Structures are given as C-alpha cells and as structure tokens.
Amino acid sequence: MFSRRLLRIKIMQGLYSYFKTGDKSIEAAEKELYVSLNRSYHLYHLLMLLLVDIVFFSRKKLEQAREKKIPTYEDLHPNTNFIDNRLIRQLEENHALNAYLQSHSLSWSQSPELIKNLNKAVEESEPYRHFMALQSPGYDDDRKVLNDLLHDVINNSDPLYQTLEEQSIFWNDEIDYVILMIVKTLNEFSEEDTLNNKLLPEFRDEEDEEFIRILLRKTILRKDETLEYIKKYTDNWDADRLAFIDLLLMQMAITEMVEFPFIPTKVTLNEYIDIAKYYSTRNSNVFINGVLDKITHYLKNEKIIVKKGKGLIGETE
User: Fold this and answer.
1) pTM of the prediction?
2) In the chain, which end has fewer C-beta atoms inside a 10 angstrom radius, N or C?
3) 222-301: CATH architecture
C-alpha cells in the first residue's frame, strides 16, 4: 500500500524521534516505525469506513423522512442515487475490510458529529449534486462520485483533521497519500465481485519492507560518515545553525544512494528535495539540492556510490 514517498517520510519521522530522544536502541526505533506504519494502515481502513458511514447517515435520514406523520411526496419518493451506490455496498460487505476493522476495534462510533458534518458537506458539494442529477447512474458513475468526494470534501474537512489530530499526530500529514491509495483501491474494484474485491496490502512487497529496515538502520549507523560529507560541502559549516530536518534529509539521501544500488540517483535526490518543501524551512529544498549535488558527484567519483541494473550502470547526472 505505502508509496516509497510515504515510507521515506515515516522513516524521517522515526529518525527524528530517535536522534532527538537520544536514549533509544535501533531495535526500539525500528519497532516504533512499524507501529507508526501500522497506524497509517489503520487510517486507510478508517477512511473507507468513513465513506460507508456517511452514506449510512443519508439512509437514516431518508428512513426518518418516510416515517413522518405527514410525509411529503419527496419524503416517500426520494432520490436514492447516493444511498444505492454500488461501491459503498461492496465496501459494506467486503470481507477483508470488515475483518480488519473488527480485529483492530476501529470505528467512527465516537464521532457522530463528524459524520453529521461530513454528510452535510457532501450533500452541499458539486460532485454530489451532479451525481444526484443523473437519471440512471452506472457503476463507473458510482465510483467517480466517491473519488471526487474523497478529494473535494473528505480531504478538505477541518472537522476531520481535528478529529484525526486527536488520534495520531502524523495522520493529518498522511491523509493525502492514504486517499490516493483508497482511490487506487476503488479503481480496481469490479462490479461482479461483491464480497471479495481486494484491498491493498500493508506492504507492496518484501523489497519495501527491506527498504525501511535498511534505510532506518544504515542512516543511524552512517551518521558520523554522512555528517562529514555534509560538512565538507557546506560553506561556513555550523551544525547548530543548520535546520535539523535539513541535516536529517541529507543524511537519509546519502545513505539511500550508497545502500540501494538499484534506485536511480535522480529518484533519490528528487524525493528528498520534494520532502524538504513540506517538512523543512523556506528554501531548504534549494539548499539541500545544492549540497547533495556536490556530494553525489564526489561519491560517484570515489566509487562510493555504484549503481547496478539495466540503465543504471555508469548513470550520469
């Protein structure tokens, strides 16, 4: 499930805690990283459940309207496009989703006001209005409205962000990535397989698990070595004046370039420069780019960075 970008961010957060705390073992830091990743996987399931609960709230409203003492024509003949959404039905009945939610005791039962507020926001949104105006929405229409609501409503809900912040300090930083994974999941759903449409696994493959273990451990073990490289190519070196996140991202980037011969240098550089835009100080990405560019050329010339694989041997910048 996790993209390499999100894995790097989670490792960065784990390393930040490790270096700032100063009293952890590498094993403890690794354990905390896995716990953090597992909580992100919780969020993946919780946001799918959130879609289900929002639709369920709409169903309850329509039922209550029908039970009025003097119901209107609209109460008795409501537009059911939204509550009949076939992908929502599939999520409600999905074995893997229900098993995961049950085994980890995950629900939105403690957040009724959030569900109410989100339901209102959904019904006031343009994707919802467009969908409700369709005469006979098809399966692709059902999928599209959910994808649009995830991007336009769920991802921009202040009440949701407040609720998530109370449960995990990192979830608000991850919601963009998790929503992309949910959209990917829904795009792979088929209309025929009602109960067993597949959800994404926590890790895409064994390589991703190996990636997080090696990058976390080797960044810690190579700390002094990578700091020397940074010092060598930083004008007016003063560790106390450099942003800690800048140092950490550069150490991770150097470690990744050295330890992972099959990852192109440009991929590594671009990833950490982009991460710096969101997690460090203004213009940090420019600073990091300049320093890493010099270090990369030096390490390649010294044969410390050696890339392997088709199209990577002897790669040039």
Assistant:
1) 0.88
2) C
3) Orthogonal Bundle (1.10)
